[in-house]
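pasting for the record
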Amino acid sequence: MTKFKTALLWLAGLSLVIQVASAALPFSWFGGEDEMPSLAPMLEQSKPAVVNISTKSYLRVQDNPLLNDPFFRRFFNIPEQHQQQRTKQSLGSGVIYDAKKGLVLTNNHVIHRADEITVSLTDGRSFQAELVGTDPATDIALIKIPAVNLTALPLADSEQLRVGDFVVAIGNPFGLGQTVTSGIVSALGRSGLGIEGYEDFIQTDASINPGNSGGALVNLRGELIGINTAIFSPGQRAGNIGIGFAIPSNMVKQITDQLIKHGEVKRAHLGVQMQDITPDLAKAFDLDSEKGAVVTSIQPNSAADEAGLKIGDIVIAIDDEMLVSADSLRNSIGLLMVGETIKLDIVRDGKARVIKATVKETKKQIANNAVHPKLAGATFGDIEESSPYFGKVEGVLIYSIKPNSPADRAGLRKGDIITSVNKKLVRNLIEFKPLAFNGGKQLLLNITRNRQAMFLILR
């Protein structure tokens, strides 16, 4: 009899919990005698805010250079060739961020190098979008459409997420049209995956597939908690195996605010290289914990240098937030606004200290004839902390190349890292400039391109 009473009390308590949840959340547990538990009420409000994105890129088909020679065509009686183009198409998803302004969030890789961006809404309307700004380091892009009567998703505070929270992914997988999948938050703060320059991913087992990129990850209130970005797959054809990653909403907001204001992200730069604390390092530095990161290098004239940070310092907290690893410090700095002052709690020679640093923007220099004629048209800079090469390769990064410029014709490419000039190592712009300023004489550059090293001669 006691067990029977206990069971009745347990069932009564469960019924009360379900009734309270039904009243608090915008989805239906039991709408009536014939209705089943459903997410449909929440999705009816959220789905119009998720859009399908298709892009077109027009790629020039490389002709044989002899066909561009008028004498060659005339000699062999070859008719004049018209420029050929190849069209590349891709599909993805997006999330309406600001309904009044027509702002739509998506992934940078969805619209990268697109000549045309088409946004299709759930009500059947389609619009050509214009690019507002992108941030490749976090894989976030912001586009704008000339539309009215839009629905935007409210933003949730991703800091409040917990492992085990229910989530729903909305997107356009495989170009099938809008699709909804559900799951839970599997993990938080995933980093070090090598997917993006700055990583602080929400991990979920809600199915995310090709075409879901840029779509919404929402909670059961229909609030945006993340932008679906990538999946973990052991093989190219393995597909989804239940490990997907989304950019948290708080990071999305920080990046989007800068894209709206500047059209780009003016990323803050501390100017240090860090290393995770291993058990051996913790013992060597006489630390009680393996949390935090040790400073291994400091760039001259950087914010860290001016603040008095030293090699061997152990950074254990930033603005009173404990650091777990070097990646967590890098993420925290990279999301700050240029000019912000931060407080670093460090341990130096076994003693606790507090250092304040005002973060700077990475400085770049546009090369001109005063440096070397063959470098004109290239933009050089120190390797940013957002680069996957940061801390792994020392040198000067080429940020951009103007088409048909001397640097372009010399064979330099965007993303090249110059590691030496005339057999002398260069670690930064300060060391690069005097070596490149040689009166126009021959330059022998050692370059890292796509993780491969090569030499390039500029005469």
